[in-house]
């Protein structure tokens, strides 16, 4: 069981297309199902109409999904239940620290500041709770990524106790994605390598909540000429449905599966399914996006 979980902050661009295509191919080539989830928890960042635009783009590209689309914005009660389970087990604590107050701590594996544990043993006098953090442990998390290979991370040392309920009242991505993957019975997560450093945190939460851990495969992130991840913020161009075959061919090339140059457009996806081999995906964390013809 695979899934694609875009955030509706804008339409699909090349970077999100390669993630969608890789996860679709990996699920379909194995005879599995492919689910679609909208990660629309962060409403201030959501672009009106983006979710529907993404659905139309996927349909035009031929990347059909199974079942109904799951919207995270409808799942608050489920996330709250998971948070309460963690709290009953003593795995969380309230935190009163602002970002400014932890700005002097060391930088972690993903460039964010490692939380120094200020509120771990209780809120300092006069400091109100702002967020909720999960307790990490010194035991390293080890997993084998199907593309990137063996990974090892000490969440306590390299990230620190991390937020599961934000100061603005929104459930954090790390908690939501773990609950959703478990509830949807996802067995294989194929996504961009920008999320590789989040995986150990998610495995930790899975263990604390008693959830199974899926297999992970992190494809290279597509970057522009300046080395920046393709995104709405870096001016990534939306996928044009009128040139769907060209976009798919570029994505396959990026994923290490260059299609024959004379292949008819309608045969692209059947060819890709017949030839999909995740071992051909480049074992790097970032790659320049192929130039548009």
How many beta-strand runs?
12
Name of the CATH first level of the largest domain: Alpha Beta
- The dominant shape is elongated
Average predicted local confidence, pLDDT: 94
Order of helices and strands: EHEHEHEEEEHEHEHEEHHE
Our count of helices gives: 8
| Helix share bin | 25-40%
Number of domains: 2
How does the helix and strand content classify structurally? alpha/beta
pLDDT below 50 for ≥5 consecutive residues: which ranges? none
Largest sheet: 3 strands, parallel
Named at the architecture level, the CATH assignment of the largest domain is 3-Layer(aba) Sandwich
Radius of gyration: 20 Å
**Lateral strand order in the biggest sheet:** 1-2-3
CATH fold field value of the largest domain: Rossmann fold
| Measured distance between first and last alpha carbons | 34 Å
Topology of helices and strands:
Blueprint: E1 2-4, H1 14-29, E2 34-38, H2 50-61, E3 70-71, H3 76-88, E4 92-95, E5 131-134, E6 141-145, E7 149-153, H4 155-158, E8 162-165, H5 173-183, E9 188-192, H6 199-209, E10 215-219, E11 221-223, H7 244-254, H8 268-275, E12 286-288
Parallel strand pairs: 1-2, 2-3, 9-10, 11-12
Antiparallel strand pairs: 4-5, 5-8, 6-7
